[in-house]
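Hypothesis: this fold can be encoded by more than one sequence.
Test: take the structure tokens below, design a sequence, compare later.
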């Protein structure tokens, strides 16, 4: 009998662990900083990044462009089934408007829409594009529904006032005029729709690390995230 140290069984088992892509789930409400964090984490580890909110935005914009109502399940379901994310639609600047965000949170409450977008998201996590060794997905239900087995889960949050202020500054920075009270009200309306919907509501997974960034700048949030990911995966950032 070979000793445990020289057993051929050990090698393949170790290889299997390292060949499965690592998955990091980052969820949270609007303007909590999850997108900023997800991009930075993905770059640091050499992982692929998917902003899943852009999928819902693309569906919402498609319904609006067709003259439909984003809250109409038939129109929203059709648009989701017809979506081809690989075609470059996710980079369309029209997706970044507040109108698109509101439409996104309406189509996102339609179960057929969520079902139609699930396979693309799971495939991204299981087979990250470009052969990347891992994937970072950010959204609302990554840790709870899309990738419940993710290697590390973060739930990034901040008070609604702080988040509205961040979004206001972001809009102003892009030269888009915005009224502070409207931005705050829109954010509250979206929070309510996202948290209260029947299917895949916004909530932290039971095993998520909750990161409140109300009093943290982006560098501090990143440092806390990296420390958590390191504790769950044993990996440190490459950069
Ligand atoms: N920790 C932070 N502190 C202050 N501003 C932040 C922080 N994280 C992100 N931001 C800024 O807040 C805005 C919203 O961040 P973003 O990452 O787009 O949020 P989300 O993806 O959750 O909607 C952006 O302008 C971003 O630069
Ligand atoms: N995984 C996801 C991602 C987004 N969404 C929906 O899509 C909307 C837009 O998401 P987003 O992440 O682009 O929004 P921001 O956080 O950038 O403002 C959200 O308000 C949710 O209703 C979702 O339901 N599930």
């Amino acid at each position: 009998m070979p000793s445990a140290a020289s057993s051929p069984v050990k090698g393949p088992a170790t290889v299997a662990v390292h060949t499965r892509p690592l998955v990091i789930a980052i969820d949270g409400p609007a303007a909590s900083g999850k997108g900023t964090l997800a991009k930075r984490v993905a770059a640091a580890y050499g992982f692929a990044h998917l902003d899943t909110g852009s999928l819902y935005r693309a569906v919402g914009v498609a319904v609006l462009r067709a003259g439909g109502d984003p809250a109409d399940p038939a129109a929203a379901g059709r648009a989701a089934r017809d979506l081809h994310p690989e075609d470059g639609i996710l980079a369309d600047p029209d997706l970044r408007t507040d109108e698109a965000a509101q439409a996104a949170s309406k189509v996102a409450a339609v179960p057929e829409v969520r079902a139609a977008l699930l396979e693309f998201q799971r495939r991204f996590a299981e087979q990250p594009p470009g052969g990347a060794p891992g994937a970072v997905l950010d959204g609302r239900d990554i840790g709870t529904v899309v990738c419940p087995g993710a290697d590390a889960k973060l739930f990034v949050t901040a008070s609604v006032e702080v988040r509205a202020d961040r979004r206001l500054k972001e809009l102003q920075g892009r030269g888009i005029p915005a009224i502070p009270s409207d931005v705050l009200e829109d954010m509250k309306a979206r929070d309510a729709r996202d948290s209260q919907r029947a299917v895949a509501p916004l909530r932290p997974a039971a095993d998520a690390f909750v990161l409140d960034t109300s009093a943290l700048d982006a560098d501090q949030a990143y440092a806390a995230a990296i420390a958590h990911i390191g504790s769950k995966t044993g990996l440190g950032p490459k950069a």
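Residues 30-31, 35, 52-54, 56-57, 101, 104-105, 108, 139-141, 190, 194 surround cytidine-5'-diphosphate (ligand 2) (CB under 6 Å). Residues 22-231 form a domain with the Rossmann fold fold (CATH 3.40.50.300).
Hypothesis status: open.
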